[in-house]
Amino acid sequence: TPASVDAMCRCKMAQWCYTLVDVLQLNRSNVIVAMNYLDRFLSTGSPRAILALSDRREYQLACMTALYIAIKISEPKIMDVKQLSALSRGRYEPKDFVAMESQMLCDLQWRVNGPTSTHFLVLFLDLLQPMMTGIPVACILEDAIYQLELAVTSYDLVTQHPSTVAVAAMMNSLQKCYHTQEGKMMQNLSYVTGMNASSSHISQLAQCLHHLQNHSPTLSKRSSPLMIQDDEVTHDATSESKGVQVHAARGNEHSPKTCVSC
Questions:
Q1: Nearest Cα to 157, choosing from 120, 203, 208?
Q2: How far is C-alpha 119 from the chain's CA centre?
Q3: Are the beta carbons of 217 and 226 closer than 8 angstroms?
Q4: Distance of alpha carbon 77 from its chain centroid, rounded?
Q5: For 100-125, what is each residue's pLDDT tens digit?
């Protein structure tokens, strides 16, 4: 009987995706986009999506394929499915990724350019910037984006609207900088976003993001690749990752480990 999929599967696969894009020096937003594809695919109710929800092997294949699609769309160069197969240590053949890609795009009705939480964050911050004084916008953006990167690892945030999660992340970041003008800044945030930034719902989301930021050691340093801590994941994919035709991996940093089982 195939092992069922749980919240930990999502967390481990998201971490593996971050590991890969870090080593290949790709934009981390690809992972946020990929997890968006994955969540929407799984919610379609198609036979393949239902199978992926009940079989970890299928779930892992769907997640890796979602990242492959995201990179193909947003990056100047794409990963080769042969390299994905190598990273899976032969668990999946190239044709498996091709078939899953076709299935996912069909189930998503080719809607692969929808807004993510990072898109909303950049838009909201651009609108809020004229009301911010004395605070480097880059610092707010960096901190909030990191929270959004963490958010995709959490199953509890899957059903939340990306715009709402973006507001919660902004609220956390702004509160760190505006201790004396917090009330005014919350009013400004509510004004530019059209949401009540002081609502109990957004406050709960902000607390969840704050908890993730303080209790996720594998994502504690954005400059360092993430390493999956799993007894079953022991194969170093250095040779495979060097062959991926995207970007050269950083010379002295850890390479991603092949995801054998989530």
A1: 208
A2: 13
A3: no
A4: 20
A5: 999 999 999 999 998 999 999 999 99
